[in-house]
Amino acid sequence: MKQRLYPGATMATRSRLFALEIGCLLSVVCSVALSQDAAGSPPYFNIDPPRQTIAGDKIEVAEVFSYACIHCFQFQTLIDAWRKRLPRQVAFVYLPAPYNARDILLARGYLAAASLGIAENAHSAIFDAIHVRHIKVQTIEDVAALYAAHGVTSEAFLERANSFLIATQLRNMLALMVAYRIDSTPTLIVAGKYRVTASSAGNPENMLKVADQLIAKEIAQTATSRQAPSKGK
After folding, report:
1. Does the pTM exceed 0.85?
2. Where are the domains of the chain?
């Protein structure tokens, strides 16, 4: 049985209620970001407490991004090349940051596309649509139109995007932004423990170098912890 957000309410009412709820959560995100220690721990920030990731026995590296962010668009070329040489112990994921009305629509679209299995193939095309073709995104129908060329009808996409499942995932994503203290995009999160930004690392290229160092550190620590029980034998 399909669940929907705010059962009994019209689509317009559900949208208004959801926007109000998102606005309240966003105020929490902003207050947390503003309360951070400005000094930080260059070239990365420690996440305290660390977050459990969903990558299983692999090291999760996540890029927090927004399709509306020009810096994320420019960073994507670096990410595409970098991902090809990541160690096999690493699992890479995208986390869409829902910071304003347009970001919320695009984040909802990404989550819907991911649940439909088309997000990865459509990723670069969505960036191009916004930053090269300058397509305006003002409604969830506009987002559905962006994904229409990637193997799903607008009707099927809208049904998924407006579902209880995606609304729940979007709330969880906002909670994750608070936990990770995200205050800019793009941001890299390594192993749920470290946050790397262009500001902390110095520039986008250095973000990847710092992430490489943190990944190597995590791989070494994992290897050490696996060997530890055998020392007493």
Report:
1. no
2. 41-97+182-227, 102-181
